[in-house]
Amino acid sequence: MAELLRMENISKRFGSFYANKNVTFDVQEGEVHTLLGENGAGKSTLMNVLIGLYQPTEGKIFMHGKEVSISSPRVAVEQGIGMVHQHFMLIDDMTGLENIILGDKRHNSPLLQEGEDRKTVEDIMDRYGLEIDLDEKVGDMSIGMQQRVEIMKVLFRGADLLILDEPTAVLTDLEVEGLFDIMRSLTAEGKGIVFISHKMREVMRISDRVTVLRRGETVETLRVADTTEQELADLMIGQKFVENTYEKVTGATKDEFVLQNVSYHPEIKHGGLKDVSLTIHKGEILGVAGIDGNGQTPLAEVVTGLVKPDSGKVIGPDGTEIAVFSPETFIDAGLGNIPEDRNKMGLVGDMTIAENLVLKQTESDQFSLGHGKWLKMGEIHSYAERLREENDIRCTSVDQTARSLSGGNQQKVILARELEGHPKLLVAVYPTRGLDIGATEFIHNQIVAQRDAGCAVLLISADFDEVLKLSDRIVVLFEGQIMGTYPGANPPIKEISLAMAGK
Known about the structure:
This protein is an alpha/beta fold.
């Protein structure tokens, strides 16, 4: 195979901090080369250099053996490099076709050449087995279909090298298989793929080679045929990785939070709730299993008081009925929330880590005078430093913005803030989505510790393995309805899997 890409001795420095240091990475034509590392290991920075968002402090980039200077994302596209981001960059109100051709400048005419472009898009779809309803609005598409639109965007622009950033994080098992089929058809045509993922089983299935980064430096590049999941995990964290197992709680009976016959927009097949009843007990983890998009989001919103149900009752920790929480009453009720989207709902990106850590306590006597009129910045800084150390938040300073952190460290900030108040109820929605094995294990340990301290935990996750690992009881949600309740100890996996499919 010929060499498609070579990044040679790439360093990227921010002030005195090296996000990448002397990294060498290459991709051959027709291969999937996985970039593996903990959150904050430098993967995103390296790819941002490759697509022209950052300029390297040192090092060279070669495409097809020729040195290139990638000064902007536009230049990256011209060089045949396309990236499918973890968070899609699509316009919901536009069709699949409109999203694919948006911004393309292959025509000299100021007028759209939609008929000609449609033919080109259809030819690419046929070539790689990408089935998309081009006339459907993106906002009405499934997550898996939206991802296909993103892939088509880069192929339409002539990409020879595709960067797929955590592409399976929000996909069902069936959608993952479809994605892998597409990846195989792309590599069969000589395309190169950079695959970024933390899911070891998927890495082992789809990759030809794996390069491990740790603290911004290259650790090793291995052929998948010559390594194991355990070896890769050990290389990622720099020591032997041992996955924890947890004892399951049985017999928890004290009600902490109750939903009684709750419905919320039941007419919406994948976005509502239909007559949902469940009880979360003190000192247990109730796991909600189900394929993403079957009512998980509205369930979390109802429990956290963000929306009012159309019918039914929501009974909170003090036994009173809840309609809609204000932020203040949410905090006073003793609830902690790890939201679905850490960037949109969990953090204020442009605020510092320290500021985000005290968001729920800005009016407390500990951190302010006059109920929030004057903040005690020294006290806030000391508090943040303690939580930083206790929660292994990897940053150069608690004064840097939350936006600048890796996904795993952002999640640790949210977790530290929510757990420091010793909540009566913790709602954890997709708490480890997109996180590496080390960060995932840390968060799992923290959630179980809260349970053991008497907290009631509602765990909502599309990762079936995560639900099985942590849950003391399991409920299955399908099209907004509870399909059954199952024990967390020795769960009937086949029965649960069928329930997740609505059977």
